[in-house]
């Protein structure tokens, strides 16, 4: 709805008078930006960039290697200079854009050097090299969620690639996989150290916590499969390393008050405990382990919902209630198995899903009205 329509609806509802409506309209008109114009300009720039890329790609083999490397070096230096000048002038978003481009150029440069000098290796080696080259710039100069998400995403990708390439039959491989598992908690620890840049810190913590909660929720399915003692023992080695990262994140976030402390325990400690119980302890695949796993899942997300309600974190509360609703829907199929796929079973499943969605909306709406 356009702002003029909103102002008119507010005025007709008696929320504002005519003078207030006129002042709001004048204020919004002064702040209005030519969105359509900038959108057209953006499309033109995109077309220009694609055209240049196509011309270069068509003549790639004919371009001397020295020219390729020289142009890339000049572009990288230009992006670094633009980032520095923008920060010096206080143009945060221009600086963020230049820093993001600088990171992309670093990644492209690594690929270019590998092509020119006929280098080969694992994907994790490329990503770790990028983190060593561009990571410090992002960590020191990042100001908003844009660069925080980019740095966190590359770090998680590098950790996952490293874990996938590690030798699971050696202690070094288990240690490497444990380090990879600790990456999301390390992002929370970094967020606690970067609280002076609130949006950058928030981006790191959001990415870290999202990875933690998604990974632990997926690991919850381990309760449906048997885990022998040998597998549980190997997992405990990985968890020992990951636990050190979780402890560091908890200590730094607790000291820096990154989150309310009840919420911090629910978001950082409870998922790790649920992960240990799911994959670090020997169990079978019968109904009892599945039931225990469902209870642990409900306890984790229920604790997060309770802590979020106390802290007034509406989005986290809504996500927690939604996660519980989804798990309750899955329980229906677990209990009734193939019967749930019959005609009546699907009808009941549809009704249950609608009821859960409406219940989630009702609970979340009530919390929003009661919240600060």
Automatic annotation (TrEMBL):
UniProt keyword annotation of Transmembrane helix present: yes
InterPro entries in alphabetical order: DUF2157 (IPR018677)
Matching Pfam families: DUF2157 (PF09925)
Top-rank taxon, per record: Bacteria
Residues passing through the membrane, by range: 36-60, 66-84, 91-111, 123-141, 148-165, 171-192, 204-223, 235-254, 263-281, 287-308, 315-333, 339-360
Ranges for domain DUF2157: 9-144
Keywords: Membrane, Transmembrane, Transmembrane helix
The protein, known as: DUF2157 domain-containing protein
Lineage: Bacteria, Pseudomonadati, Pseudomonadota, Alphaproteobacteria, Sphingomonadales
């Amino acid at each position: 709805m356009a702002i003029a329509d909103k102002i008119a609806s507010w005025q007709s509802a008696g929320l504002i008078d005519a003078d207030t409506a006129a002042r709001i309209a004048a204020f919004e008109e002064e702040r209005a930006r030519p969105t359509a114009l900038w959108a057209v300009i953006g499309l033109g720039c995109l077309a220009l960039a694609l055209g240049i890329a196509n011309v270069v790609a068509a003549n790639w083999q004919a371009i001397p290697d020295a020219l390729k490397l020289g142009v890339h070096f000049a572009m990288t230096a230009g992006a670094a200079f633009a980032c520095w000048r923008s920060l010096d002038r206080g143009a945060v978003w221009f600086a963020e854009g230049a820093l993001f481009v600088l990171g992309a150029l670093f990644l492209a440069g690594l690929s270019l050097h590998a092509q020119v000098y006929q280098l080969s290796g694992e994907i994790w080696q490329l990503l770790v090299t990028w983190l060593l080259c561009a990571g410090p710039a992002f960590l020191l100069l990042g100001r908003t969620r844009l660069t925080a998400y980019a740095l966190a995403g590359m770090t998680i990708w590098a950790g996952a690639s490293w874990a996938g390439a590690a030798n699971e039959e050696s202690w070094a491989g288990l240690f490497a996989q444990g380090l990879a598992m600790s990456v999301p908690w390390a992002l929370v620890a970094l967020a606690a150290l970067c609280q002076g840049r609130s949006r950058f810190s928030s981006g790191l913590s959001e990415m870290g916590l999202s990875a933690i909660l998604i990974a632990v929720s997926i690991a919850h399915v381990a309760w449906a499969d048997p885990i022998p003692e040998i597998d549980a023992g190997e997992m405990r080695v990985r968890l020992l390393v990951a636990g050190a990262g979780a402890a560091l994140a908890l200590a730094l976030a607790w000291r820096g008050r990154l989150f309310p402390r009840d919420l911090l325990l629910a978001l950082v400690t409870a998922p790790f405990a649920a992960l240990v119980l799911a994959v670090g302890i020997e169990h079978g695949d019968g109904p009892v382990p599945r039931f225990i796993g469902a209870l642990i899942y409900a306890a984790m997300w229920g604790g997060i919902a309770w802590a979020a309600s106390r802290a007034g974190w509406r989005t986290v509360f809504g996500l927690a209630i939604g996660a519980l609703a989804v798990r309750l829907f899955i329980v229906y199929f677990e209990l009734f198995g193939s019967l749930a796929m019959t005609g009546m079973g699907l009808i009941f499943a549809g009704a249950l899903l609608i009821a859960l969605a409406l219940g989630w909306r009702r609970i979340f709406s009530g919390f929003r009205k009661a919240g600060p």
